[in-house]
Every structure is written in structure tokens, then in C-alpha cells.
Amino acid sequence: MAAKRLDAIIFGATGFTGKYTVFEAVSVLKGLSWGIAGRNHEKLQGVLKEMGDKAKTDLSQTPIIIADVNNESSLLEMAKRCRIVVNTAGPYRFYGEKVVKACIEAGTHHVDVSGEPQYMETMQLKYNYKAKEKGVYVISACGFDSIPADMGVQFIEKNFDGVVNSVESFVHMGVKGGTKGLGRASLNTGTWESAVHAIANRSESQAIRRELFPDRLPDFSPKLKARPPFSRSTEVDKVLLPFPETDRSVIMRTQRYLYEHDKKRPVQMQAYLTLPSRLAASVVVFVALIVGIFAKFEFGRQLLLKYPSFFSGGMASRTGPSQARMERSFFKMTMKARGWPKSDRLAEVTDQYTSPPTKELTVRVTGPNPGYGSTCVALLSTARTILLESDKMPDTGGVLPPGAAFAKTSLISELEKHEHGIKFEIVANK
């Protein structure tokens, strides 16, 4: 007798992100049937015991499925066992495509927390039409990269009451009460490895995008110009550096989709990391330059991956951040939108405004533990939303960014329900 099909399976559950996804699943997937998957049955049992004790819940009867990224038949069997695969097994550049392929073949939805633009855009290029044909949603960037930013833009547009021309986001990450005694590490080496390979292969993105989007979007004015590095923002009174490209690339994919399918004027976007001083910003730039140079060469990448703590300035470690640090870490994203009131709306989406923007809206998006708390809640919330609200999602499937997929769903409300969820609020409306 065939086993009953589960609602969701968390794949890669023995990894650092995976095991905390199991912990959050106790509350986020409440009322749904779910299991976990990976290569080693004993380790999977250990995760259920550890996270069950942490959640004060008996997880001993949770289904365990054995699946290995190097065994494609096992991936297919796993995908056939559920309605959606929650994939935490990165780096996705190396391990993601086989899981996506298995899910599409099985007619099973797929979500992951990739922050790797090359992987995400390659999946859209190769599998979008196949996913539509099978009625399957494949959605990446469902963690800190890039739910706060992409859904933040959707939140802005729903509350702007007019036409949004541009959005600037200012990201602050910190630890309540300071970091003394908590250890310096804020990343696990799995996250570090994904970042190193994304940096090393950044040049691939342009070629992928030219093939994925052969037609350029129209130019809309006024043009949003990037602020210079080390400038100080009056909005948050912090020194700015350009934020890594994941948020912006994901948002622009969403905006292109909405322009092509809903005839909506695309929002321009720039993202910035905020720091307390130019000295702190200089240290970040120095570390980023070293990593960028080393990542270009095979030998350099080997060193970066062998000595993550040294090359990251202590931010990455094989054991990941301490429990105390995770409990006290947080992020705050301030998003400032500019545009025109409803009364100034133009007749056609391609029409150009001749007057500068006269309306502003400022939104704040906040959450705890961006790496392994908010990220896990966001990932599971996207899975729950697909299972329960697919009738509110576009087309019948496809490889989509979060903003395009969830614009008309209640994902934001779902995110706000949970202790480690993400909050969206309006702080100024002019």
C-alpha cells in the first residue's frame, strides 16, 4: 500500500538552516502533514529529537524520507511523497537544479532560500514553461533574501494610493544589547559557501539575463540614481554601502513580470546596507574586496572555504552563530517610496511623467534572527501559502520571484502571525 502523500517535506533537514526550519515547522505548518528528508536516517532522527525538545513537542512520529542529491531517483521518490518540497540544501548552484527537476517531473511545488541570482535566473530560463505545463510553482529567495524587500515593495504598492516611481531600502542588522560574550559568528559555513560561489560567478548573470530577458524594459523617468558609497542617509542617519545584488535582482524580476502580465509601471529600486560610521564601512569594504579577489581563482576559493572564520573576519564559522546570538539578533529595513498621487495617474503604463514625484511613503520591515529565524519562518510561510492559496497566485505555475507569486495572497499576514516572523508597518505618509 502506497504511503499517504504529505503536504510538505523539508529536504536537507540535517543542515544548519534545515534543522531550524524543522523547529519553526511545528508552529508554521500546524494543521498540515509534513516530514523531513536527507541522506542519513540516524541524523534525521537526531534532528527530530533536538528540535522536538527545543519546541517542547514530540516529533518522534514525524515521517522520515531518505533522499540524496546524488541519487536522482531518490529525489523523484521524495517529490512524489508530498505536495511541496521545502528545500534547504545549498549551495543551490550545485545541488538545487536536481531537486527542481525532480519536483517538476513529480508535479510537486518547490520553495527554497537561495540568495544566488545565477541559480534563480537559470532555473527560470530552463524550467519556467515546464513548470507551467505541470501546474507547479518553483519559487526561490524565500528567506531574508528576499522576502522582506520583495514583499516590502508589494506592501508599499498596496498602501501608496498612487503610482510608485522608486523605492530605496536601507538595511540595518544588529544584536540587542551588543555582542559581548555571544561570539562573533553570524553565519554558518553553508551560507558562506553559497556567498563565495555567487561572488565568484557574478559575471555569469549578465549573459543569463540577456537570454532570459531579450527585450529591455522601457526607460522610466525620473531615473533613480544610486547613492555614492560612504554617503550618509538622512532617512536613517547611517553611512551607506550598496547592498549585495540579490534583493535588487529579485525585485526587478518581479517588476518585469508585473509589467509584462499586468501592464503595471515598474518600480525602480536601490538597496543599501547601513553602518554606524565610515570606519565600520571601510572595514566591510576591505573584507569584501579580499573575498572578491580570492573568489576569482580556484586556489583562492579553496582558501576561503577552508578558513571561513579568518576570511570573514569571524562572521562565518563551521558551528554557526551561538544560540544566544541568534535569539538577540534582528534586522530592520527602512523602505522609502516616491511617486505621484492617484489624481496624477497617467492613462497608459508607458506614458512619461513630466513633473517630479510629489508623494512619499516610508515603510519599516523588521524581524528577529534574519539568518535562521525569520528566514525559516518566511520559507515555511511561502510553502503554506502555496498549499492553501494557489487560487490567488498567477497563471497555473511557473518559476517566479516571491513578489510576483504572492502579490495577491495573504503571505504578509501569515508572516506577521509568528513569533519569529516578519512585520510590515507604515511609518510616514506624505
From TrEMBL:
Record-annotated Saccharopine dehydrogenase NADP binding domain positions: 9-139
Family annotation (Pfam families): Sacchrp_dh_NADP
Top-level taxonomic group: Eukaryota
Cellular compartments per GO CC: lipid droplet; mitochondrion; plasma membrane
Membrane-traversing stretches: 279-297
Biological processes annotated in GO: glycolipid biosynthetic process
Keywords attached to this entry: Membrane, Oxidoreductase, Transmembrane, Transmembrane helix
One GO MF term: oxidoreductase activity
Family: Belongs to the saccharopine dehydrogenase family.
Name of protein: Saccharopine dehydrogenase NADP binding domain-containing protein
